[in-house]
Amino acid sequence: MDFKDRAKQQLRDASESVVGVLFEQAKKLPFVKDRIAAEYDKMMAELRAAAKPYGDEFPSCDALPEQGRSRDEVLAQMRAMSERESSRWEDGFVSGAVYHGDPEHRQFLEQAYAIHSQTNPLHSDLWPSVTKYEAEIVAMTADMLGAKQAGASAEVCGTVSSGGTESILMAMKTYRDRARAEQGNDKPNIVAPTSAHAAFDKASQYFGIELRKIPVGEDFRADVKAMKKAVDRHTICLVGSAPCFPHGVIDPIPELAAVAFARNIGFHTDACLGGFVLPWARELGYPITEFDFRVEGVTSISADTHKYGYAAKGTSVLLYRDKALRKHQWFTLTNWPGGIYFSPTLAGSRAGGISAACWAAMQAIGRQGYLDATQAILQAGKQLREGIAAIPQLKLLGDPLWVISFAAANPDKLDVYRVSDAMSKRRWNLNGLHRPSCVHIAVTLRHTQAGVVERFLADLREAVEEVERTPAGAGGMAPVYGIAATLPARGAVSDILGMYMDALYEV
Ligand SMILES: Cc1ncc(COP(=O)(O)O)c(C=O)c1O
Fold first, then answer.
1. Domains of the chain in sequence order
2. Is any ligand 1 atom within 6 A of the Cβ of residue 164?
């Protein structure tokens, strides 16, 4: 993004927030309110139908059954729904979401979970096995991410959390509490590129930390100079991604971490997506920007075992350079009538079986398994990149390895969201992104199955041609992103998202 684009973007953000305030005021007027409600109803009808496809086909329960149903009947219903939902991801039509998914691997994880299904790491006295698994998950991840090369003063340590978001929330809380304890900083801020994951916004909202989001450069990477400029005496940490979710590119972590190091503040590498890919990519000879504890200023890293670590959903690792930092994550309560209480992460009770299955996955896959998986994924990524680059109506964004985003070469002539909708008709489930308008596919092991990449490219060519041939209709993702581009997010789109979440919990 050059200076002019950035200025335009800032102007757009400012005007959006003005329009946002006006929108909030205008929707209180009865006439406007009714019109908006009618529009929302139309949109919600479609979103609701998509979120609740089963209707009355399976029994709806808005209260407990009087007598328990037979286990066979319950399992049969669950299998029937699961079977309908599996083939799309099993056959590799989905971006990200399921990262391994081979039947034998799944069965193995399920067995590991079953052995420890009753455990809870909150009770380390009852289940030291789970405590051992979690300590080893952290140690294996730390070893993979440069703990031994981190320098003599480092003592890399960490915790297991429920996912990338919780790891990021915990890291940001830790920096906030350290700054409060050590500097009396009560106006903390985080400096992050706009491409940083939404979890940083969540941390900002939950924990009362200002988030300074700095536009990325033309290559979609963090702008070091601009981020450096945004740092002040209340900054608790800087953030970079390896890689970022939207465009799959790795931020200039060594330069960003140097800024943090020079000011003696934290630097968090969000390697939720890349933590279990980049070390192996580097070993395979890919030129990978340094991103882990080998970089002097990196003080924490999030890396998701439940993504490319190939564990079941529900685990992630958060690492710290030393225990002096990690101690600000701990929660302890010594005057509670319920007893002396402590817990390392957001949750209290947790599913030990999930950690057990994660440990089992890491043990069974091993270094060679991760290397082989990474090689296959990066090969598929290359094939996809080359195939997309050969479609003249599209253009690749940045230079990603396996999380590949593409936009319309000429957005006035082609709506990339309509292309994505046309791909949905062909069973594909891609991620819509905006600012700029684009779509991405995160390559997983599902896409390394024979013929999947070829099918994707053939469908994409067809989808582009179909959109060029046919006028825009109603429905799909395109109108939602259309609204997001023209109205302030905190107004209409936030309202719709809120209503969508309400709908998710309707029976
Ligand atoms: C770079 C990055 N960070 C954080 C997250 C959040 O992870 P989770 O969805 O497990 O909370 C994601 C998820 O895709 C991600 O890609």
1. 114-362 (3.40.640.10)
2. yes
